Amino acid sequence: MNYTLHQLQIFLKVVETGSVTKASEELNLTQPAVSIQLRNFQSQFDLPLIEVVGRKLYVTDFGHEVAESARRILDEIQQLNGKMYAHKGQLYGKLKISVVSTGKYVIPHFVTGFVHQHEGIQLVIDVTNKSQVIQSLENNEVDFSLVSLKPTTIRVDHMDLLQNKLFMVGNLSREFKQGPYDKSLLSELPLIFREKGSGTREMMENFLHKQNVPVIRKLELTSNEAVKQAVRAGLGYSIMPLIGLRNELMNKQLQIIPMKGLPIKTTWQLIWLKGKKHSPVAKAFLQFLRKERSRIIESTFRWFEEYE
After folding, report:
1. Where are the domains of the chain?
2. How far apart are CA 174 and CA 189, in angstroms?
3. What's the rounded Cα separation, in Å, for the pair 294 and 299?
4. What distance lies between CA 143 and its chain's CA centroid?
5. How high does pLDDT run on average in the chain?
6. Distance CA 222, CA 72 (A)
7. Which residue, among 125, 156, 102, has the nearest Cα to 273 in the 3D structure?
8. 86 to 83, 91, 93, 278: CA distances (angstroms)
9. CB-based contact 135:118 (threshold 8 Å)
10. DSSP states of 85-152 as a string?
């Protein structure tokens, strides 16, 4: 036997996800790389670990036994590393955060300094839409979640990080200089929406519902980046978070269209399950934020305050 820890990690992830493709995504590896390591790992055993029937992957009974052993070995390695860092007086462990898609423009600036201070911390950030973010929090799969709309279905504690502002945006093919425009403009503009389950979609629909005017639903896309590119290309207009538009506004690729009732203002919040017992890493992260939040906002997001 000459398998590596890397092969154990890959095999265990394939077992947990039930898919080579999903395992490669979660491990940030290419699918061929995962397949090669899985094949090399299998070659060291006389009994099959995995069987593929049609397009579905099945783990054999022996494969489940190997996976359980791999889990114990990797846990022992984690504990060993933790003891090393503990003897050095340093934090060790994972910090898991689920983040709504637009939050990817926010969370890196609030975690970078913390991670640099503690080299033994492994940061895991899952970027997805709001409904999946709340699901991961409810299932206690993460330490924290970053949202701009606090959930109403579960009890949470929170820490405010940064104001969130949403504006109507379009490309520069048409001039909008006489604003702020009233709601009648909405019936003229073909609108691009995020997918259902998105916090941005929820805020946009709430605003439009209050205006009580018919709108032209042009397109629905599954990420803010996709919406932004569609707006740049002239496919329509959208109500979007300012936080992800800095470069496009500075480079005059997009413009803010002044409208009555906009911007929509919420707050980016770090939330966690009420009563949750935080790990030492999670506790230290909250302490870091309480101390450094104002400095981070001043040094990184000062431009954000120019738009009202």
Report:
1. 5-87, 93-162+267-306, 165-265
2. 11
3. 9
4. 13
5. 89
6. 38
7. 156
8. 5, 7, 11, 18
9. no
10. HHHTT---EEEEEEEEGGGGGTHHHHHHHHHHH-TTEEEEEEEE-HHHHHHHHHTT-SSEEEESS--S
Average pLDDT over residues 244-254: 93
Rounded to the nearest angstrom, the gap between the alpha carbon of residue 2 and the centroid of all alpha carbons in its chain is: 37
Cα distance between residue 264 and residue 261, in whole Å? 7
Mean pLDDT of 157-173: 94
Q: Which two tokens stand for residue 144?
A: 């924290």
Strands 144-147 and 238-241: unpaired
| Token pair of 198 as six digits | 């998105």
Query: Is residue 121 over pLDDT 70?
Result: yes
pLDDT in tens, 77-104: 777 766 666 666 677 788 999 999 889 9
**Residue 298: Cβ-neighbour burial (10 angstroms; 0-12, 13-18, 19+):** exposed
Q: What is the CATH number of domain 5-87?
A: 1.10.10.10
Residues paired with residue 146 on neighbouring β-strands, in sequence order: 99, 270
User: Using one digit for the tens of pLDDT, what is the confidence trace for 253-270?
Assistant: 999 999 999 999 999 999
Dump strand ranges (E) for 24-65: 50-53, 56-59
In one-letter notation, the amino acid at residue 112 is T
Tokens 């954000």, residue located = 304
The domain at 165-265 falls in which architecture? 3-Layer(aba) Sandwich (3.40)
The hierarchical CATH code for the domain 93-162+267-306 is: 3.40.190.10
CA distance 211 to 193: 16
Distance CA 227, CA 100 (A): 15
Take residue 269 and report the two structure tokens written for it: 């919040």
